[in-house]
Backbone:
């Protein structure tokens, strides 16, 4: 069965510092992987997705993630944090079937300090 | 603009009452999903439907019911059998022919049981 683990429920960085949010997955088949962002009391917005093309995936708002099969990881990074990046971030995995079912990690809340 | 509309945004319920959460999409997506979000637990799948008049249970379907009589609508009923219904509920949709399993989410409905 597929699963996702996000390391660290809360991450705090200073404005302008590197953002690194960690995600490890378990999947018996080549996975599709996703990062979503959620602002308070809102739905989820897709940041980026990996679908077996390039291993370095660029998303919106300057975020990117690298798929590392040997480490079963899909960590999210941004070189320089902005105050508007403060939100909750979810990593998710789905299999290659077309059911659309996603399995989500527990989420990581990013705090950005001025 | 195309999107998913969830209503109501906030809902209060007394114990023992059934409540229905509305989810309407104008994206012409075939598949629709209901997720439940609790703090620190990520999102968990309640029900999903890939075609009108058909739906499948997700991981936590007990105490919930759904219908899919129209392509654009996928209401969720939280019944009195649900032991702990207080949560944030998110509806999502996907075009079945899209191979990347990218879900589009609504803004959510927050249910509080008094």
Residues:
């Amino acid at each position: 069965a597929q699963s996702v683990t996000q390391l660290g429920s809360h991450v705090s960085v200073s404005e302008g510092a590197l953002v690194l949010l960690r995600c490890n997955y378990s999947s018996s088949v080549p996975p599709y992987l996703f990062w979503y962002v959620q602002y308070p009391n809102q739905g989820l917005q897709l940041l980026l997705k990996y679908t077996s093309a390039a291993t370095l995936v660029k998303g919106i708002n300057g975020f990117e993630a690298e798929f590392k099969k040997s480490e079963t990881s899909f960590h999210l990074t941004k070189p320089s944090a902005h105050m508007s990046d403060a939100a909750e971030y979810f990593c998710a995995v789905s299999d290659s079937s077309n059911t659309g079912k996603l399995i989500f990690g527990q989420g990581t809340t990013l705090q950005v300090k001025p | 603009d195309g999107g998913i509309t969830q209503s109501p945004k906030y809902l209060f319920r007394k114990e023992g009452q059934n409540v229905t959460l509305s989810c309407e999409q104008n994206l012409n997506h075939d598949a629709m999903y209901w997720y439940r979000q609790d703090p620190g637990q990520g999102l968990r799948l309640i029900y999903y439907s890939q075609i009108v008049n058909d739906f499948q249970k997700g991981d936590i379907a007990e105490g919930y019911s759904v219908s899919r009589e129209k392509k654009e609508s996928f209401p969720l009923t939280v019944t009195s059998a649900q032991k702990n219904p207080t949560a944030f509920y998110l509806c999502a949709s996907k075009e079945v022919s899209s191979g990347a399993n990218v879900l589009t989410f609504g803004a959510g409905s927050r249910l509080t049981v008094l």
In short: The interface with chain B takes residues 4, 9, 32, 34, 36, 41-46, 49, 51, 90, 94, 98-102, 104-107 of chain A (CB under 8 Å). The first strand of chain A starts at residue 3 and ends at 7. The radius of gyration of chain A is 13 Å.
